[in-house]
Design a protein that fits this description.
Length: about 325
């Protein structure tokens, strides 16, 4: 079993602590939090071992899970990698691309594994259809959340939209050509509602909307590609795959046939895959254990996390230029 430690015992940090403690792949050594009073309360309530010295915790582990506020990600990541330990770090990877690139450089230099916590990659609905998304040419996403003061220290792009940015970059095999965006700060000092348009060199276009002041929750993505439409509901963990093929000569009474202006007939059919239920956070942590033990590429590499951050920062930069 890999010895694991957690930096940060906030809302998400406590979830990571519980899952690492339950996992058969890890031995939870303990955790560190910058607030000693809060940390001691967590230790008393849950029984996890609190380390008041972050360096001693890192030294006692094989892998460190960084779940601190984003502003501390770079400092924590450097400390972990400098100590020769594998790094799991929550999204966004860092505040700047330059900071992220330093983590990449350090991990390569020391031959260490690094993974970014982009949990929607492990959503069972997305996992069920990601291999079926083939050269999409138009993508539309909506990620709406009710207001929660937690996370409002950063733009809604880094808080919510980055999930969809990462998912899109994972299925579009092309470089980003152009980014345009608009955002509005309604209740926070940073935008609470944002819309972005990402254009890729291969002609694919993605239109993303994110809001953290909505009256209802929504996390949906739709992918349009040649002869197929794929819908993913990240919230309800449901998918819909609608495909088209050449219409058969022998047709049943219930076959759905479309004819275009040129007289070409296509048959519409549903091709919905089976969704395997999972705990997405536990899944991402345990696949990181696979990468460490088998010396393979993590599912969401530090490079992937940096690419998503780069696009997110381009979107935010366009807000300021309006």
């Amino acid at each position: 079993m890999l010895k694991a430690g957690v930096l940060g015992a906030g809302h998400l940090g406590r979830i990571h602590l519980r899952l690492l403690n339950e996992s058969e792949r890890y031995e939870l050594v303990g955790f560190y939090d910058a607030d000693p009073q809060h940390a001691k309360q967590i230790e008393k309530e849950y029984g996890y071992t609190y380390f008041s010295d972050v360096d001693k915790l890192i030294a006692a582990c094989d892998m460190i899970d960084v779940v601190t506020p984003t502003s501390y990600h770079h400092e924590s990541g450097v400390k972990v990698l400098d100590a020769g330990k594998h790094l799991f770090i929550e999204k966004p990877i860092t505040v700047t691309v330059e900071e992220a690139q330093e983590l990449i450089s350090l991990s390569r230099k020391r031959n260490l594994k690094g993974q970014v916590g982009q949990v929607e990659r492990f959503n069972p609905a997305f996992k069920a259809v990601s291999s079926r998304i083939d050269q999409p040419m138009f993508i539309e996403t909506h990620r709406l959340a009710e207001f929660n003061p937690r996370g409002t220290d950063v733009s809604v792009v880094l808080d919510l939209m980055i999930h969809d940015i990462d998912a899109i970059l994972s299925v579009v095999d092309s470089k980003v050509k152009h980014v345009s965006s608009s955002g509005v700060a309604v209740i926070s000092n940073t935008p609470d509602i944002a819309n972005a348009r990402i254009e890729f060199e291969n002609g694919c276009v993605a239109n993303l909307t994110a809001s953290r002041i909505s009256l209802k929750k929504m996390r949906k993505a739709r992918f349009f590609q040649r002869d197929a439409y794929i819908s993913v509901d990240f919230l309800t963990k449901a998918v819909e795959v609608v495909r088209m093929k050449d219409a058969p000569e022998d047709r049943g009474d219930f076959d759905m046939i479309l004819k275009n202006a040129e007289g070409v007939e296509k048959q519409i059919y549903f091709d919905n895959p089976k969704i395997e239920e999972n705990n997405a956070i536990l899944d991402e942590l345990e696949t990181f254990a696979d990468a460490i033990e088998n010396d393979t590429e993590p599912v969401v590499s530090l490079e992937d996390g940096t690419a998503a951050l780069d696009v997110a920062l381009q979107i935010i930069k366009n807000f300021k230029e309006l």
